[in-house]
Amino acid sequence: MEWVALALAVGLGWFWLDTLKAREIALAAGERACSAEGFQFLDWTVAQTRVRLDRGDDGQVRLRRVYRFEYSETGNDRAAGSVTLLGRQVVALRLDSVAGVRSNVVSLR
Fold first, then answer.
1. Structural domain boundaries of the chain?
2. DSSP code string of the chain
3. In the beta sheet, which residues pair with residue 85?
4. From its phi and psi, is residue 43 left (phi > 0), alpha (psi between -120 and 50) or beta?
């Protein structure tokens, strides 16, 4: 019975560390996208909004995580963006315009 508790603790530890690494990747991807468009990445943070299991192109099951962030086009506004990771790979990045006119969806898959 002790080995079950140990396995659970190790699994939770792995999930926690993997989530921290995925968050770092999403943060960097959001900042790079905003910088490339000339936008200001706000609050230097991303928030995880969704986690689920999904298969990659190679058929392996990985965690798909979606992170949201905010950016500013003019310095006087706020717009939403999102980064989708499959495992530790960025597979999509979205920047929604404040005016709702522009919506860039970049699928990297």
1. 2-107
2. -HHHHHHHHHHHHHHHHHHHHHHHHHHHHHHHHHHHHTPEEPTT--EEEEEEEEE-TTS-EEEEEEEEEEEESSSS--EEEEEEEETTEEEEEEEE-TTSS-EEEEE--
3. 65, 90
4. left
Per-residue pLDDT tens listing for the chain (109 residues)? 799 999 999 999 999 999 999 999 999 999 999 999 999 999 888 999 999 999 988 999 999 999 999 999 888 889 999 999 999 999 999 998 765 544 455 555 4
Are residues 70 and 79 in contact, defined by beta-carbon separation less than 8 angstroms? yes
Please tell me the pTM assigned to this model: 0.83
